[in-house]
Design goal:
The chain is built from 21 helices and 19 strands. The chain is of the alpha/beta class. The chain has 2 domains: 223 residues, Rossmann fold (3-Layer(aba) Sandwich); 283 residues, UDP-N-acetylmuramoyl-L-alanine:D-glutamate ligase, CATH 3.40.1190. Strand 17 and strand 18 form a beta hairpin. Helix 3 runs parallel beside helix 4.
Length: 515
């Protein structure tokens, strides 16, 4: 399923009218009907329920007027508040405004103190709220009356249904400049928007529903849109079925270069994750000083010591050559989990990456090693896959984390193009961005996965798939498997889940894709 920017949806709306002859009024009617139906579900049957509907002065307000009419037909007691001016409404929204008034609804303004008092009383006794104030057009700071309205809605704490976007969330970035409606559910019209998944928008959207509202699917599935959602069906199509006559060598020889003194857990999690997603052979290269710890801990993973001059971290030419000789035998290489940030380790990483010919995944401190040297990534003999979290991504680019987070998708696109690398950026919604600009958003994952070691499991998952499928597509499938395993774990353990719990659910998530 594609994901849109606000401008994408405006262009689609124009094509709906120009190429298909469908009037905006028809789409608005469909949006209003679906909003009413889903609001009724949210409050548990609309009949007899008190619903406060808030309409703005744009098309989002027209959708709200249509929703109010349908809710009235369902038997709801609708209180309708309008933040705009009727004379400024577009043709379709004006028609919906007139229709709902003709049904006897009182469209209340929010101008005088008495109007606001009436609003508070209505919210106090409401069973639910429909937010149709701002939609996808908002950018920057909000006007004071709208801010006041959003504060009232949020303070009331009623089940809230937002149309297209929670009012106050920027559709293209998920940024909230001042305040936004805290929705329980949001109905995306036509397509989901970038802001539903990234930034603060991920917190305000609640449960996301998507409806085509009658827009021809040929327009919604167009190749002009460069971002899409990673669904289970999409991931399953990328992962080929395993032949019955395969042997372990066919399923991938994966080398994991990881670990240092005090950070052996990351190495163990990453290498075991590669096995859990079906890799045939996994070799873990570790500094000599921590070899015994990991050799005793790992059973199915082959652990090999790398000379470290007694420092307990990667570095030195002898260690580099030994590791490169192992990499020459591998189908794919993962470097970074738990390797630390010693200067000699950073140099080791850069020299190693410059010489490896196999597909390369870089995580954590391997990414840190290229901070201020992103040009070196362009010169690597392969297109590497980098799996940073926001902090690591910002450090790599030499930018403040808040600046990166404020426009994450565009920043990731620019970085992928300039570095000629695939970026798997871990955030509220993990995104996979390719050098050509194509971007994929995960549909799985939860807040409980914000735990130490979760990223190591993701890196190992991606590396473990390398030989089993087209290596360039492994980030998409890996992100889905990791998120799905996290969701399976969350069902039982909630925010108390640990990285090892995610690891143990990877086989089940993988089996779901292959059934």
């Amino acid at each position: 399923m594609n994901i849109a920017f606000a401008a994408d949806m405006r262009a689609i709306d124009e094509r709906v009218a120009g190429e298909y002859g469908l009037p905006a009024l028809a789409l608005m009617e469909n949006a209003g009907r679906r909003t009413a139906e889903e609001t009724a579900t949210l409050v548990g049957d609309a009949r007899g329920k008190a619903i406060c509907v808030f309409a703005g002065g744009g098309n989002n307000g027209g959708d709200a007027f249509a929703a109010a009419r349908h809710l009235m037909n369902m038997g709801a007691r609708v209180k309708l508040f309008f933040t705009g001016r009727a004379e400024h409404l577009g043709d379709a929204a004006r028609a919906m405004h007139e229709a709902v008034r003709a049904m006897g609804a009182e469209v209340r303004p929010l101008e005088s103190d008495r109007d606001w008092d009436r609003l508070r009383v209505s919210l106090r006794f409401a069973d639910g709220v429909v937010d149709g104030v701002l939609g996808t057009g908002v950018q920057g700071e909000l006007r004071k009356p709208v801010l006041r309205l959003i504060e009232e809605i949020n303070t009331a704490g009623k089940p809230t249904f937002s149309i297209d976007m929670p009012s106050g969330v920027e559709a293209d970035t998920g940024r909230v400049a001042s305040l936004a409606v805290q929705a329980n559910r949001t109905l995306a019209l036509g397509l989901a928007k970038v802001g539903h998944f990234l930034g603060q928008g991920a917190n305000y959207t609640g449960e996301l529903l998507v409806d085509d509202i009658g827009i021809p699917h040929a327009l919604l599935a167009g190749n002009a849109l460069r971002q899409s959602l990673i669904t289970a069906s999409a991931a399953a199509k990328l992962l080929p079925a395993r032949r019955r006559d395969v042997h372990k060598g066919d399923c991938g020889r994966i080398l994991v270069v990881a670990g240092s003194v005090g950070m052996t857990g990351a190495a163990a999690l990453a290498s075991e994750a590669a096995l859990r997603v079906g890799a045939g052979l996994v070799t873990l290269a570790v500094p000599e000083r921590v070899y015994e710890v990991l050799a005793a801990k790992m059973q199915e993973v082959m652990v090999v010591p790398i000379p470290d001059e007694g420092k307990g971290c990667f570095g030195g030419m002898d260690g580099l050559q030994k590791t490169l000789s192992r990499a020459a035998e591998a189908d794919a290489v993962l470097i970074g989990p738990g390797i630390g940030r010693a200067p000699e380790t950073a140099e080791f990483v850069r020299l190693f990456a410059a010489d490896v010919k196999a597909p390369l995944v870089m995580d954590a401190d391997a990414i840190w090693a290229f901070a201020g040297q992103t040009g070196a990534l362009r010169e690597l003999p392969q297109v590497p896959i980098l799996t940073p979290h926001i902090g690591e991504f910002a450090h790599l680019l030499g930018k403040p984390a808040d600046e990166v987070r404020g426009n994450l998708l565009q920043t990731a696109r620019d970085a992928a193009r300039e570095c000629q690398a695939v970026f798997v950026v871990k955030s509220e919604c993990t995104i996979v961005v390719y050098p050509d600009g194509d971007a994929f958003f995960t549909s799985c994952g939860n807040a409980g996965m914000a735990t130490a070691g979760s990223g190591d499991v993701l890196a190992g998952t991606i590396a473990g798939l390398m030989r089993q499928m087209e290596s360039g597509m492994t980030p998409i499938v890996g992100v889905h498997l990791h998120g799905r395993a996290g969701d399976l774990t969350y069902e039982r353990k909630g925010n108390g889940l640990m990285a090892r719990d995610i690891l143990m659910k990877l086989p089940k998530a993988l089996k779901e894709l292959t059934m």
